[in-house]
Every structure is written in C-alpha cells, then in structure tokens.
Specification:
This protein is mostly beta strands and about 625 residues long. Helix content is about 5%, strand content about 40%. The strands form 11 sheets. Strands 33, 35, 36, 40, 41 and 42 form a 6-stranded mixed sheet that branches. A 4-stranded antiparallel sheet has the order 2-32-31-30, with no helix packed on it. Helix 2 runs antiparallel to helix 3. It starts with a strand and ends with a helix.
Length: about 625
C-alpha cells in the first residue's frame, strides 16, 4: 500500500485561488448559522406492501425544501420479480417518497435494467433536484457469477413527477470485484450536472504491462449539460490519486460544485497501516479536467483507524468518519470536522464510545451534520446530531425513533440530512416478525426553546423518618433529562446518587423531575439543585434546601391516641401523669386532651377522667 507522511498537503497557488473563489460563493449561498433545534419524528418509511429481507434503509438520500422534499431509500437485498423476468434474489430496489404535509407518500419503486441477481441495486443513492444516481456494486459482468461485483450505476431523471432511467454507467474496463457503484455522488457546475461513481475494488493499472493492484480504487466522473440534452451523459475522467496501493480509494465520495472528496480508508500513513486518508480534487470551471488538490489525514493517525470510511463535503466544510479510532475506547470511532482556509484544518473532533464505530456514515447540510454508529446499546445504531454555532461545532444529542418504533437493529445503516430534514435507515429492523426487512424514519429539525425554571425550586422540611419530595418543573422543548446534585461543604456541587446517603436518608428519583427522600435523617440539612437537559443544552435550577425539623417541633410531635396512656407505653401508670403535666406546662398541643384547640384547666379534668377510667 502507498505510504505517506501525516501532513495536510498544500494545493498549488492557482488551485488555492480557484478554491477560495468557490468557497466564497458557497459560503454566500449557505444558510444562516443554526439556532437551537430538536428532531421531531414525522414519518416511518416501510418497504410495504411486500416485506422481504431486503435491507430497506441500507442507503438513504434526501433533497429539496418544504413540500418539495424527495427521499430515496435503498433496499439492496430485496428480491425482484417482474413479468417475463426470472426472479432475482438481492437484485435490489430504491423506494422514492415525496413530502405530503408533515408526512410522505410513496411515489415510485425503481429497479435496475437489466434485473440481475445479487446486483444489490440501491447499495448507494444520491439525489440532486430531478437527478438520482443509484449504485449496484454487486452486478456481475455478464452471465454467471465468475465476474461478480463488477458493479454498475444507474442514472434516473424526473420529468413531470415521474422518474425514468436515463443512463447506465459501467467502468470502461469491467472486472469482477471492482465494486463499481459502492459509493455515488452528484453535484452541479453552471448548466452541467456531474455524476461520480466510486469503485474501491478497481485495479490500478501499472506501466509496462505489470499486473495491477486490486482494491486500489478509482472514481469515475460523468457529465451532462442540461442545455444540450441530446448529447446525453459523457464519460469525463477516471480519477485516481498519485501512487499505487490497495487503499480502497473511492469507498466514500462526496462532491460540492467542482470539488470532489474521496475517502481511502485503507491508506497507510507513515508507519500506520490502514490509517486512512481523504483526497480532494478540483474539476475546473466545467468539471472536465480533474486535478489532485490536497490530501487530508488524521491529525494524529493510528493503525487501522479507517479515516475516510465516510466523507461529506459542502463548500469549505468537510466531515470525515474515522470508524475504528480508539481514542474513546476500542473501536469507539470518531468524526472529524475540517474547514478550508489556505489548507484544510481540523476544527473539531468527537469520539464515540467503546465498540460504537462512530462515523461509519456521515452527512452534512449547512450548520448540521449527522453521524451513525455501527454498534451501540446492543445492536442498535443511534445517530448523533452535531450543529455549528458561529465557527464552533458541538454535539447536540442522539436521534432515535419514538419508543413505539421498537428495537431497531442496524439503525443508522443509511443517514442523510438536508435543509432541516433528517432520514435514518435501519436495514436490520424486524417488520412483522421478518428480520432484516428494514425501516427508515424521517425527522424535522424544528426550533426548540432552552430549559428554564420559572417556578424556581421549592425547599422542603420534614420530620425525622418521614418522606419528603422536591419537585422540579422546568420548561423547554422536550424530551428533557434530569440529574440532581447536592452542594458539599466546600461549595462544590456533586451528583446525588440513589441509595442511602449519610446525613440525609434514602434517596431515589435522581434522574427524574422528582427527588424523593425516604426515612429522612434527624438533623438533615442539605442544599440541592436539579440540572435539566434538552437539545439546547443543560441548565441548573435555583438552589433548594432539604431539612429535618427538630423533634420538639409541634409538627413532629406525635400525640397519644388515648390521653390516659400519655407516655404511650401500653399501660396506665403514674408515669403518664408526669408525661401529661410535662406537656401541659410546655403548652404542647398534646396537652389539649379535650381537643377544644387550647391548653387550659379543662384539659387536666379531661386527662384525669380518662386516667381514672383506666384508659379509653
């Protein structure tokens, strides 16, 4: 494999000037910086009416704004049966949905032509306006399967609301294992639409007739001029990096205007095998001549990190998935954010949790980015949302379907964000007891309000042994999560954990809005606060105190049910007379034996009447 130093290459001066102009145009058209938002689930996409083990949701794409949103969902494992065509397992389909109010309606189901077994049509998908590009990396080269996974890509155009196949792309020299169509991307320059097809298994051609190197990879570029449609789609270039190696170049692709980003997750960097890289290319003013501009690697590369397993490019911003980085634990993964000034510089990085493989898929739109995990919380794959405020990226939270959606295996197999719409595929989801049928969910990013505590936090007091509660009532866009803290003697705040807490009592509800203390300790005096969190961040409530009243507090004194047994020892003796007069002289409420609301001489008469009677 090719080995390079862990540096960020500088583009040539001409390319830097061209890129600066392109970035300025992109930034001028970019949406305003993000406000606080929350994902609201709007729709559940299903492969109905024919559920199969089709891996519906393995790839997703979204484009458009408002009621013009279109969602494409790939199901590369679906069996295709058409009239007059032999049944083909894993031929694959793409389901197309259009926005219908807050929900969506299924408009079309697309298949490849020809329908071929194990083609896996729908493994990758991209949409740009009325153009859709679909990868079928499993398609064989000719009859039989001796040249399996040569691959193909299919270009569809929408006219009057109907998608129709316009072009089928294959590599000029097809070979089994090329994986042509593993990744796809679309962009536009002026009147031209550009289609990019990644073939990470492509064999690198060597000079002098030497045997090529498998899995070197390439990206094939095609062009279409919308003002000269008769010319159709033309092959423009076969893009490869400098050097020769088995790097899986083209496993991920993303394009923005005339700039192309290509991931090579098995590129060797210095002495680190499969550390990974992303190479950027410029296509000039017409996209007809592609030149290598820069190569970006991890700031601190490590072996088998797979930097570039996924990539998303928009203007001068790039997000790169590093699915096997170990900074957050073994195979925790990470996502790195880059910005282009004179060179590409990393501006933020976020690590996953151990075993989560964060970054297997990424998507970027304006001030929002999403990244998927391969495994976290069992087999679930939560999708993480990031937002940019000013020039700073922050983690906003985890996008998960509503609880009634059930346990979704393979969630995040396909993810996409575009203009405030997020689509998450779950290719392994069980539908009607059928495993790997797949589902997908659509979310809208809606304005959210921050947490506030308009009612403050009430202090409480109780008698020793009683149960007391402190109830927080914060406002703000839900869902809200809670954590309770108590203040130490040095003034620092520490989490309040459940269970027996010395000097306080038995604590529960520390992650709910209601903190409960049972068996309140005598002499308890503690200051607490509630920290509530939503998509806008965390806010601490005002302080509240939890105290135990003195044993002599009238509220804590337990008066005898029968005045004659005043000391409540079960017998009527002279000790009861002493106990009564002690309470009477202290003016205790228990001295009100006639229950008239006052402690007077009449209570002495009432006590002795009960005493002489031998009890109640």
């Amino acid at each position: 494999m090719r080995t390079r130093s862990a540096t960020i290459a500088r583009p040539s001066l001409a390319r830097a000037l061209w890129c600066a102009l392109a970035c300025a145009i992109a930034l001028a058209a970019a949406p305003a910086h993000a406000q606080c938002v929350a994902p609201v689930q709007r729709f559940e996409f299903t492969p109905s009416p024919n559920f199969t083990t089709g891996q519906f949701g393995a790839s997703v794409a979204v484009d458009g704004v408002g009621t013009g949103v279109t969602v494409a969902i790939g199901a590369p494992g679906e069996r295709v049966t058409l009239p007059g065509v032999p049944e083909a397992d894993a031929a694959g389909r793409v389901h197309v949905w259009d926005r219908d109010g807050l929900g969506y309606s299924r408009e079309q189901v697309l298949v490849a032509t020809p329908v071929l077994q194990l083609a896996k049509f729908g493994s990758s998908v991209a949409i740009l306006g009325d153009t859709m590009l679909v990868g079928a990396p499993g398609e064989p080269n000719g009859p039989g399967f001796e040249n399996a996974e040569a691959g193909a890509a299919y270009l569809f155009r929408r006219t009057n609301g109907v998608w129709a196949l316009q072009e089928r792309f294959v590599a000029p020299v097809r070979q089994g294992g090329d994986d042509f169509g593993w990744s796809v991307a679309l962009s536009s320059i002026g009147t031209r639409i550009l289609a990019f097809v990644g073939a990470p298994g492509d064999v690198q051609v060597l000079p002098n007739g030497q045997a090529g190197v498998p899995d070197s990879g390439a990206v094939y570029v095609y062009s279409y001029n919308i003002i000269a449609p008769a010319a159709g789609w033309t092959f423009v270039d076969r893009v490869v990096p400098t050097g020769v190696a088995a790097d899986r170049f083209g496993e991920s692709v993303s394009a923005s205007g005339a700039t192309l980003a290509v991931g090579a997750p098995r590129d060797d960097v210095t002495s680190f095998t499969d550390a990974g890289s992303v190479t950027l290319f410029g296509g000039g003013l017409t996209g007809s001549s592609w030149t290598q501009l820069a190569t970006v690697t991890a700031v601190n590369p490590g072996p088998t990190e797979r930097f570039g397993v996924s990539v998303a490019l928009e203007g001068s911003t790039m997000v790169v998935g590093v699915a096997q980085r170990n900074a957050g634990g073994t195979n925790a993964g990470a996502v790195d954010f880059f910005a282009l000034s004179s060179t590409w510089q990393r501006v933020s990085t976020f690590n996953g949790d151990s075993g989560s493989f964060l970054g297997v898929e990424v998507s970027l739109s304006g001030d929002f980015a999403v990244a998927a995990c391969r495994r976290e919380d069992g087999n679930q794959r939560p999708v993480r949302l990031y937002r940019r405020t000013g020039d700073v990226w922050t983690f906003s939270g985890t996008v998960l379907p509503l609880p009634e959606a059930g346990w979704l295996r393979g969630q995040g197999s396909g993810v996409a964000v575009h203009e405030g719409v997020v689509v998450v595929g779950s290719q392994g989801a069980v539908v009607d007891t059928l495993g790997d049928a797949g589902l997908a969910h659509g979310f809208d990013l809606v304005p959210a309000t921050s947490v506030a505590f308009p009612l403050g936090l009430p202090s409480v007091a109780g008698c020793a042994g009683e149960t007391v509660q402190v109830v927080a009532a914060p406002t703000g866009t839900g869902p809200l999560s809670y954590s309770w803290q108590r203040r130490l003697q040095n003034g620092a705040w520490t989490p309040l954990n459940g269970g027996t807490v010395g000097g306080l009592g038995v604590v529960s509800g520390t992650f709910t809005s209601t903190l409960t203390i049972t068996n309140l300790s005598a002499g308890a005096a503690t200051t607490v606060r509630c920290v509530a969190t939503n998509w806008c961040g965390s806010v601490a409530s005002p302080e509240a105190t939890i105290t135990a009243r003195p044993a002599t507090d009238p509220a804590c004194v337990v008066c005898p049910a029968c005045p004659a047994d005043f000391d409540q020892d079960g017998g009527v003796t002279g000790a009861d007379i002493e106990a009564f007069f002690a309470a009477f002289q202290a003016g205790s409420a228990c001295g009100d034996t006639d229950e008239d609301g006052g402690v007077t001489g009449a209570d002495i008469e009432a006590f002795f009447a009960s005493f002489e009677a031998g009890g109640c």
